[in-house]
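thread: overnight batch results

M.L. [08:02]
morning all. the overnight job finished for the chain we discussed friday. pasting input first so we're all looking at the same thing
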Amino acid sequence: MYLKYLITFCILISFNANAQLFEHDKDFRAADSLLKEASFSVHRDNYFLSGVPLNGPITRNSADVKYQVSFKQRLNSKPILGGFFPYLMYTQKAFWDIYANSKPFAEINFNPGIALVRPFYLAGGRLTYGTISFEHESNGRDSIYSRTWNMLAFSLKSQISPRWTVGLRGWFPLVDKDDNPNLTNYVGYGEASASYQIKPGRWSADVLFRKGSGLLNYGSLQTQLNWKPYANENYYLTLQWFVGYTESLIDYQRQDSMLRLGFVIKPENMSIF
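M.L. [08:03]
and the structure it wrote out:
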C-alpha cells in the first residue's frame, strides 16, 4: 500500500513542485548540479572490501572480498520530456572467495538500467532528484542457479541540509517465479537511504535500509563509516556492515551478517538515487 503513495508522491513532486522546470533561476541551478558532472561518471559507490562473517565461524571459505563497479552515462546535455535528463546505468557487484584454495568467484550480479532524472528544488532550497528507472538484475547463470528480476522504480533523493542527504525509493518487481520462488519477499518493494557528513570533507556515514515484504522478517540493513585520508582525492577508507537478506542473488534466502573493510570511490556530487 505504501508503494502507491510513494509513486503518487514522486509524480506530483516531479511534475508540479516549484512550478515548471527551468522557468526560474533556481531551476537552472538544479540542472547545473547534473551538468557540472561529467557525462560519464560514478553512479553508485565503487568499492573493494574484504571481510568476515559475524554470525558464523571465520574460515577460509566464509571470509571473502566484495567489490562493486558502478557508472552512468548522461545521454543528453539538455532536458527532454518535460525537464528529465536521460541516463544509462550499469552496476556490477561481485563476491570473491579470495581466501579459498582455488580463489573462485562465488557470485557476480549484473544490474544494467535506463533512467529519467529530473532535478529541482524543494521548499527551502533543498536540491532534489526525482528519478524513474527500469532495471534488470541477474547473476548470468542458468538452470537451478539462475537468479533474475526486473523492476520499474521511482525515487526521490534530497539534500535536506549541508550535512544530510536522504532518499526514498520504491519499485514494482517483475520476477520469474519459476527461477526465483518468493524472491519478492526478500527484495521487498522499496528502500530508504541517508548520508551524514560527520566532518565535511573527511568523515561521513551512510545507511541503506531495504524492507522485505513481511512485517518484521526479511529485508536488510547496510551501514558504512567513511574516512577521506586526502582532502583533494575522491576515495575513502570504509568500514561496512551488512546484515539481512539479498546481499547476493544466489543466496537471497540466507541471512548474512558481514563486516568488511576497504576503500570506496563515491560520486563527486549527490547521486541520482
